[in-house]
Design goal:
alpha+beta
Length: 110
Amino acid sequence: VDLSVISKVNIDTLFFIFYSQKGTMEQYFAAKELKARNWRYHTRYNTWFRRYDPPTQETPEFEKGTYMYFDFEKSWQIRRKTDFTIKHHALEDAFDCECVHTWYNPIGGG
């Protein structure tokens, strides 16, 4: 993986790498780059979210507002979700190799 290239890759390609290269270093680096671009991985929905606007409500436990999300299951497009609540504990912050294997290990489920 050429790290100088991953920061220049378009967002669609990053999502493709993340969802198609399960359990690999490529998936790990795509996740790191998505996080650097302010996308956050939701462990319950197994998808990426990004704030569209500042939250309308924010507490230590959750935030509510309008978000963009990557719809990998139906349309393979970025969509918008309004009046949506995200619980902070469901967002993945630690991107390490072990975490990537946990998300999408083809042998171990995920």
